[in-house]
Amino acid sequence: MAMPELERLLDNGRKNGVEGLRIIYHDEIVAMEPRINPEVYAALHCPHTGITSPYEYTIALAENAVQNGVEFRLRHEVTDIQRTGGGGGQGDGEQPGYIVCAGVDERVWARFVVNAAGLYSDKIASMVGAANFRIIPRKGEYIILDKTQAHFAKHVLFPVPSPTLGKGILVSQTFHGNLLLGPTSRDMSQAHRTNVQVLEDILTSARRSVPGFDASRAITSYAGLRAKSDRRDFIIEESEVARGFVNVAGIDSPGLTSSPAIARLAVDVLRSAGLRAARNPNFNPFRRPIIVRKPADYTGSVDGVGPDPALHVVCRCETVSEAEVVDAINRPLGAHSIDTVKRRTRAGMGWCQGRYCEARVAQLISRETGIPVGLVPRRGAGSSLLPHRRITEDDRQLLDDLSKHANAATQKPDKPAPKL
Predict the structure, then answer these.
(1) DSSP result, 183-214
(2) 146-165 b/e (C-beta count within 10 Å ≥ 16 → b)
(3) C-alpha 215 chain-centroid distance
(4) Nearest to 241 by CA among 125, 101, 376
(5) Where are the alpha helices (DSSP H) in 127-172?
(6) Per-residue confidence at 168, pLDDT binned at 50, 70, 90?
(7) How many other CB atoms are found less than 10 A from the CB of residue 36?
(8) Which is more confident, 104 or 25?
(9) How would you list the strands of the sheet with 106-110, edge to edge?
(10) Strand pairing partners for 235?
(11) How many whole angstroms separate alpha carbon 339 and alpha carbon 329?
């Protein structure tokens, strides 16, 4: 069944203008990926596939938006949206549009509203009677291995996609050189599956593609929810019942890859709805990066002395300097918690998962913002599949046992999984 699906995907890609697609076979695949399953027969090769860092990409877009005049109102939950005259056919003498309510007394008038509320987009749309769709969250879980395992995948390796489960468990390097396994794709109705079962699902599927990685080198795991809609497609349209209200919803995978095109389409929809906005001649498309790649002769040191904060290493696992942390804290959107600094600088994303650097980051946040160090927010509850928020040796042993079980599962499917 795999070959007809590969041929269908090849044909579909060519129709969509993807260049360089071709089906390749065993010898060429093994030459490109020496550690792939030796039983591989064929694959669809896309030479233009790239890897990005999703959270850094999102933060960069947000910071660039602030540079160009956008105002963010974070921690302002939308509680109601009220139509004013003419918006959706109601005429009360006021200018047509919407009053967006947040909290007790926050009111913002808008001629147009773009609903990009993800998992909550159907609830936001229902506030103006524009919910002609329903969001059905779909859960995805990942395991991240350390950088010693990156050589097991030189490309992004997908199994043949499933009509119900999507792209399946991929094996890929991350942008910063870890090895990524995942994601799962399961309805919330499957929540009865235990974390151990989900971990085994990931490891079993990943080993079908790449058998040899060492699961005990895991540094973290996490989960997220896709905002899948019951319309089974992206929704990018002006509401027929609430004019000027544009739904950008149900953005499932590959939403990140599609995001620049989605933005252009959303602007076209707004223009069709009556938006008159001239191109900004002073628009600045450039945003200075936070993470500074260190050269081979970098002379920074842990708790370094001297006046240059670029040489004071705060996170030794990822070689993050004091200068990078301070830069992140003082950016336009700010970074005033351990977690927000982590996602901007990678401090805490290495082997020790912040055991060493978390206190140092908290001290810098306190110094720069005046927040008492004991009150610096750290992190939420997290979404790890493992028993501990930070991986312990017991967690690594569990992964190693599950990995061995995954290897044997194809021959002995009735063997029980290790227990917590």
Answers:
(1) ---EEGGGTTS-HHHHHHHHHHHHHHH-TT--
(2) bbebbebbebebbbbeeeee
(3) 22
(4) 125
(5) none
(6) confident
(7) 22
(8) 25
(9) 78-84, 97-102, 106-110
(10) 249
(11) 11
- The closest of 350, 340, 270, 271 to 317, measured between CA atoms, is 350
pLDDT tens readout for residues 53-99: 999 999 999 999 999 999 999 889 999 999 998 544 444 446 789 99
d(CA 359, CA 84): 50
Angle in degrees, CA 204, 206, 211, rounded to 5: 85
Tokens read off for 239: 């509401």
Alpha-carbon distance values, 3 to 9, 16, 31, 39, 101 (Å): 10, 20, 20, 15, 53
Hey, which residues does 321 pair with through a beta bridge? Answer: 313
For residue 185, what are the contacts with CB-CB under 8 A and spacing of at least 6? 138, 139, 140, 165, 166, 167, 168, 226
Asked whether 382 and 353 are in contact (CB, 8 A), the reply is: no
**Phi, then psi, of 315 in degrees rounded to 5:** -110, 110
Reading the block at residue 276, the tokens are 């008159």
Phi, psi of 3, rounded to the nearest 5 degrees: -65, -45
CA pair distance 288, 328, nearest whole angstrom? 11
